[in-house]
Amino acid sequence: MNAKSQALLDHLINQGAIQISDIDFNGELVYSITDKLQEVHPELYMELKDEFEYNMFEMIQAGPKTMTWKIRTN
Phi/psi at 18 (nearest 5 deg)? Predict the structure, then answer.
């Protein structure tokens, strides 16, 4: 990751716009956005929102698939 991207991530974390939520199987950090992202970086918020909505539309258009769900009991 270049210095500019790292600085942006650090800024968004410090502002409470994103948070580290997990580590993937490759050891990469996984981030989740918070509602504050819309205020801190509206352009990024809209880009992520549009991408999410597009992917949801594609899943709906593909129709039902076999899915496995883990139900939390705690």
Answer: -135, 160
